[in-house]
């Protein structure tokens, strides 16, 4: 059996009956538009005549359709499996060559209609990101396409348009005259194509229920089956901006946003909001906060006073809802910022947690605004009637640094954190702050698909982030791009999102990555060069039809991010070399200028796409934030130096930061420490010009084992001088150590260079990571043994975190031990390391940002050295307050995207085994670094890179 939708330039008609929901009819028209865009033929929509005809598409909603019952009886189809289900649809090829789409409810029917679009290769962003579907001459569905959809994993799934100025706001005013129904029609359609059903509308300067014009926004949302709600500080279907429109000394609502002094005015204000908008489908926000996202009673009020007042307010609000809207209306209380403290209370003040006044209310939990889970429902709390929601962020306007430009949310982290929320029982509402929505299409797709089908993308699928990116690339570009082009898009998306995850563009500074230590600035720049080169190369081969989509989804965010990164990397080098007096500082200043111009040009070109269709959407500031917001943000400082009037050369060992021009008075010595690693036989000495003219130099070296890359040369800017060591020929070792000297000589001075060497490591195990110069580093996935426990096991999370990957124990809801004597029962990872000297070492554990997931709880793991008694390692310091800008520990963690835990350990000379045990939820290890006491670990953004294994 097959159902022909389009063939030979003829299209099957869509059949609907009297009483069809208006929203279903509207979506049918949009799907007909999709068919036309794919095939060039637009199907007609006709009325049901009471008889089943061949080659038609029948669209029905159970409980509102005699047609579906007649078709089911004639075709022998069982519809009972749909009855009572939430948002499900049957997609059935009929025996007579027709197609039946039957929804269990309005949204189910709409999802079924958009399933046609999905099968035709139409992207959910066909309009919002201009993803043009590939043309097809015919559309035919076979019996294998027949299916019944599942119920969504999360009941309410959606996003919050927020922080909408200057980008989204300017765009919608210039194209739609404001936050109107015409604009929201595009937003609603995109949400439904993503299988979402829930929206918090823009609210900085707009009122959803007034700007349609009038109630047209709310009416249209209800027509489509979109469940509307309001943000955490907008109760009773009122919008934040509405209050300023109606308040006043002579207003019936009063003038003060204070329940203590204006109780009757606020009750009337809330009642009128419920009477106006309660006829539509909503989740009604309850509770109260201060104006403009502030405290309700101010800093001086006690916890007890706040809780008591909030109870009174909620009681009155729920009474109003019953009177004005009805019984059992969905209600939500957001436990955001200070409200969370009111919910839990403290040792002396009971909170709202056990108060029966919240029975049936969905409790909206919130991460820390930077994508890291905070308190999650305990097993006891999960029985709460009303369930739990999660408010997540891809965009944030607040301390310590706002992020509102292109996507900086990394799929592996989103997957890790949101699967944790789901596994902890947060399954009723998922809402994500997407800012302007533009440039968040990729992470939003994942967020929505994870919420819709957790069984497919959830915690049982460790490679879900990688698999999803491949799926997303194919969905958006597969109709036009060859496999090699799709692979390139995959790499570009992966690289730029990880780069922005490691440091959000707004937060990046000239010193985020050190200009010389570990060569990390050079490595970042080379990665950026590869990213930009691959993106530019791919752009040249993109079909014309897909150029706008490629620009919007890939080119602008990737190129803009790489350029913003380069700008700060050049600034770091400019500052470093200017302090040295090297002429190359001026070159880096010019490169900063070029990056600034490129940033402006990229924005201009984006705004010109499709005759300015998205003009305004790229206006968000994104460089050089010095405050939490964009106030006083600035481009990097550019320092220009005046070259010396006499010959001058500076020298520096690669990766080091000591430089000298070889003067008699300063007598600085350049030490090349790279050869302390027995595997290194070649390293680099860096030469920098400091004069107006080129300066000749020559090398003086007496050792036959030291081979400079050249013995003479001329430098005026930067030069890399390679130095080789003939390790195999050295005969004069001194207790496995050796030093050699040479000099770089020029007219202005003689630069002394000392080379330090270590001989091979005696008896070092084949898989051991060995110490060089008192330090070593191991990526978390490079354990030698992964021991499962009865309660769970560690798993490697590919590409997680700032460097290579992460390891985490599952089930992720499990606390594997509480007391130190229980540690050995937990899952264990063993790492093998080798050090030359016994003694005290600092073990630096780089872990994913983590907050306690239970009120008053902690995050910890276990550690044992060489089989000794394990220690319980607490990761959370006293006084820690997640989400509080005044907490320096939290602020540093979220900006750096890493938590650093330092543990003092005693190591023996030679081989050592380090055991890491799973502890609480939230512990996710990325890297281990060991530093011998007395040694200094150089500053850097990513820490000491992984050192070598013996056999590598």
UniProtKB/TrEMBL annotation:
InterPro entries: GH115, GH115_C, GH115_sf, Hex-like_dom2. The keyword Nucleotidyltransferase does not apply. The keyword Hydrolase applies. One of its GO terms (molecular function) is hydrolase activity. Residues 769-946 form the Gylcosyl hydrolase 115 C-terminal domain. One of its GO terms (biological process) is carbohydrate metabolic process. SUPFAM superfamilies: beta-N-acetylhexosaminidase-like domain. Keywords: Hydrolase. PANTHER family: GYLCOSYL HYDROLASE 115 C-TERMINAL DOMAIN-CONTAINING PROTEIN, PTHR37842. This is Gylcosyl hydrolase 115 C-terminal domain-containing protein. It comes from Roseburia intestinalis.
């Amino acid at each position: 059996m097959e159902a022909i939708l389009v063939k030979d330039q003829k299209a099957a008609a869509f059949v609907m009956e009297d009483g069809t929901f208006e929203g279903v009819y509207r979506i049918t028209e949009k799907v007909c538009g999709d068919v036309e865009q794919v095939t060039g033929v637009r199907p007609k929509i006709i009325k049901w005549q009471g008889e089943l005809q061949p080659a038609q598409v029948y669209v029905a909603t159970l409980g509102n359709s005699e047609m579906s019952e007649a078709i089911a009886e004639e075709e022998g189809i069982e519809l009972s499996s749909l009855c009572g289900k939430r948002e499900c649809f049957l997609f059935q090829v009929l025996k007579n060559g027709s197609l039946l789409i039957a929804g269990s409810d309005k949204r189910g029917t709409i999802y079924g209609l958009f399933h046609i679009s999905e099968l035709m290769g139409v992207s959910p962003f066909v309009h919002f990101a201009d993803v043009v579907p590939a043309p097809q001459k015919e559309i035919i569905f076979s019996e294998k396409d027949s299916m019944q959809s599942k119920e969504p994993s999360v009941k309410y799934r959606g996003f919050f348009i927020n922080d909408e100025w200057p980008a989204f706001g300017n765009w919608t005013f210039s194209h739609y005259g404001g936050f109107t129904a015409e604009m929201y029609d595009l937003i609603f359609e995109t949400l439904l194509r993503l299988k979402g059903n829930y929206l918090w509308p823009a609210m900085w300067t707009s009122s959803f229920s007034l700007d349609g014009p009038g109630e047209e926004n709310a009416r249209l949302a209800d027509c489509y089956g979109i469940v509307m709600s309001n943000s955490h500080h907008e109760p009773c279907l009122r919008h934040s901006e509405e209050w300023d429109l109606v308040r006043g000394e002579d207003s019936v609502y009063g003038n003060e946003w204070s329940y203590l002094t204006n109780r009757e005015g606020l009750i009337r204000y809330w009642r009128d909001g419920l009477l106006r908008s309660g006829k539509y489908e909503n989740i009604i926000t309850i509770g109260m906060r201060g104006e403009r996202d502030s405290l309700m009673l101010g800093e001086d009020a006690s916890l007890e006073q706040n809780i008591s007042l909030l109870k009174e307010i909620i009681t009155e609000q729920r009474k109003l809802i019953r009177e004005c809207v009805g019984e059992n209306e969905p209600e939500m209380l957001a436990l955001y910022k200070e409200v969370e403290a009111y919910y839990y209370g403290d040792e002396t003040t009971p909170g709202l947690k056990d108060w029966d006044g919240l029975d049936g209310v969905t409790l909206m939990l919130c991460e820390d605004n930077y994508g890291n889970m905070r308190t999650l429902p305990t097993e006891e709390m999960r029985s709460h009637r009303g369930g739990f929601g999660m408010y997540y962020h891809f965009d944030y306007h607040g301390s310590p640094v706002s992020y509102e430009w292109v996507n900086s949310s990394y799929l592996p982290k989103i997957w890790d954190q949101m699967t944790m929320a789901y596994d902890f029982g947060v399954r009723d509402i998922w809402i994500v702050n997407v800012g302007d929505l533009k440039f968040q299409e990729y992470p939003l797709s994942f967020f929505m698909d994870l919420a819709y089908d957790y069984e497919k993308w959830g915690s049982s699928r460790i490679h879900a982030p990688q698999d999803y990116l491949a799926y997303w690339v194919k969905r958006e570009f597969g109709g036009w791009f060859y496999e090699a082009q799709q692979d390139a898009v995959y790499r570009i998306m992966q690289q730029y999102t990880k780069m922005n995850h490691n440091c959000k563009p707004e937060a990046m500074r000239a010193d985020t990555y050190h200009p010389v230590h570990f060569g990390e600035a050079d490595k970042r720049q080379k990665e950026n060069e590869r990213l930009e080169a691959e993106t530019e190369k791919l752009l040249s081969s993109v079909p014309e039809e897909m150029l706008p989509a490629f620009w919007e989804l890939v080119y602008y965010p990737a190129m803009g991010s790489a350029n913003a990164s380069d700008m700060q990397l050049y600034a770091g080098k400019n500052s470093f070399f200017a302090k040295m007096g090297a002429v190359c500082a001026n070159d880096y200043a010019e490169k900063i200028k070029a990056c600034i111009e490129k940033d402006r040009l990229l924005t201009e070109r984006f705004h010109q796409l499709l005759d300015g269709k998205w003009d305004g959407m790229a206006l968000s500031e994104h460089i050089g934030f010095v405050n939490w917001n964009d106030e006083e943000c600035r481009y990097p400082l550019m320092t220009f130096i005046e070259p010396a009037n006499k010959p001058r050369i500076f020298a520096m060992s690669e990766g080091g930061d000591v430089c000298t021009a070889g003067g008699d008075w300063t007598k600085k010595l350049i030490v090349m420490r790279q050869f302390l690693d027995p595997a290194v036989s070649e390293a680099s000495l860096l030469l920098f010009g400091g004069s107006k003219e080129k300066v000749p130099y020559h090398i003086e070296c007496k050792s036959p084992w030291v081979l400079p890359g050249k013995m003479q040369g001329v430098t005026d800017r930067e030069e890399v001088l390679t130095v080789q060591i003939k390790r195999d020929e050295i005969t004069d070792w001194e207790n496995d150590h050796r030093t050699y000297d040479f000099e770089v000589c020029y007219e202005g001075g003689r630069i002394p260079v000392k080379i330090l060497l270590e001989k091979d490591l005696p008896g070092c195990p084949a898989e051991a990571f060995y110490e060089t110069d008192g330090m070593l580093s191991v990526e978390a996935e490079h354990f030698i043994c992964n021991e499962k426990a009865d309660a769970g096991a560690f798993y490697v999370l590919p590409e997680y975190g700032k460097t290579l990957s992460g390891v985490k124990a599952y089930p992720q809801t499990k606390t594997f031990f509480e007391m130190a004597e229980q540690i050995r029962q937990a899952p264990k990872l063993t790492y093998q390391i080798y050090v030359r000297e016994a003694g005290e070492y600092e073990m630096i554990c780089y872990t994913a940002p983590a907050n306690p997931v239970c009120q008053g709880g902690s995050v910890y793991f276990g550690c044992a050295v060489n089989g000794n008694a394990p220690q319980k390692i607490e990761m959370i310091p006293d006084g820690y307050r997640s989400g509080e800008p005044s907490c320096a520990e939290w602020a540093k963690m979220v900006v750096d995207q890493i938590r650093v835990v330092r543990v003092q350990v005693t190591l023996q000379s030679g081989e050592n085994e380090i055991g890491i045990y799973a502890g609480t939820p939230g512990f996710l290890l990325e890297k281990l670094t060991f530093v011998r006491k007395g040694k200094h670990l150089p500053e850097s953004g990513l820490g000491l890179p992984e050192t070598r294994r013996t056999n590598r």
